[in-house]
Structure to design on (293 residues):
């Protein structure tokens, strides 16, 4: 793990696309997770947005987010599959290697795991010729899949090389997830790790969970779950994960600050994160031993 593994998420930054790209790069980041609406809503159109991204020199971590995709049937399934095809094309256009899929909250979706796995495999297959991997994330308020163990079960059942699981620290902290299950997930099957924290020890209701998730997250090192985050990071490192980390921090206060200030906060957080892993991996010198010159 090194600082080049870390990137901003555009949802965290105020301003137009070009400002988000410039602020991320100026802070030291070489990559950014983009939302499809960043590109679709650009005043100059999609083609101009893609040109800006490529000219910035900032690598695109991936594109968010495909919602309520899996577990549907009939016309609803066909509709969502068509939307997914279009989002995969957006990924290809901007050079994004990953399409994020969040677990469904739809009351129309089946909770049958074989159905979910089959739909995910279908999407992963569509991404192969485009060079786009699919990452499946468990929302903590997902209707049927709301824990990382379940999202891993679906990914494992799908048995598709182009499909991986997304680990999101907020949803795990909000659920009080047992981290022991992380050891069951091979590092190469983790498509992305999203990092954030929040400012209270526990979430007392579904309403508070949504409010916190959408408006009040903070960067790792700023919240009250630093020990849990450190444990999570070290477990991922031991599991052999060597991929990207994205700061997905929804925070209304940050959106009132300049993107440069927020990106600098994120860069300090990236240094905090790398320190948590390095602190574990450095050898402890016994009495009478000297550090090498």
């Amino acid at each position: 793990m090194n600082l080049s593994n870390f990137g901003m998420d555009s949802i965290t930054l105020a301003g137009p696309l070009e400002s988000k790209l410039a602020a991320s790069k100026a802070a030291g980041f070489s990559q950014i997770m983009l939302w499809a609406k960043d590109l679709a809503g650009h005043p100059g159109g999609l083609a101009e947005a893609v040109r800006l991204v490529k000219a910035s020199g900032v690598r695109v971590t991936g594109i968010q987010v495909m919602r309520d995709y899996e577990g549907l049937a009939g016309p609803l399934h066909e509709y969502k599959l068509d939307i997914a095809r279009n989002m995969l094309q957006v990924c290809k256009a901007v050079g994004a290697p990953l399409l994020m899929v969040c677990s469904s909250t739809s009351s129309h979706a089946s909770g049958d795991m074989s159905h979910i796995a089959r739909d995910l495999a279908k999407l992963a297959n569509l991404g192969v010729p485009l060079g786009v991997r699919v990452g499946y994330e468990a929302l903590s308020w997902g209707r049927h899949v709301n824990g990382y163990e379940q999202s891993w079960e679906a990914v494992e059942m799908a048995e598709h090389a182009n499909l991986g699981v997304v680990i999101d620290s907020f949803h795990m902290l909000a659920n009080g997830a047992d981290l022991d299950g992380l050891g069951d997930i091979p590092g190469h099957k983790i498509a992305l790790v999203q990092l954030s924290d929040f400012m209270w020890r526990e979430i007392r209701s579904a309403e508070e969970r949504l409010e916190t998730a959408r408006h009040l997250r903070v960067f790792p090192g700023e919240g009250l779950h630093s020990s849990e985050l450190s444990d999570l990071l070290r477990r991922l490192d031991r599991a052999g994960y060597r991929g990207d980390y994205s700061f997905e921090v929804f925070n209304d206060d940050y959106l009132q600050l300049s993107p440069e200030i927020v990106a600098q906060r994120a860069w300090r957080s990236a240094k905090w994160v790398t320190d948590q892993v390095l602190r574990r991996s450095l050898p402890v010198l016994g009495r009478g031993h000297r550090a090498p010159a």
Notes: The two ends are 24 Å apart (CA to CA). Confidence is low (pLDDT under 50) at residues 281-293.
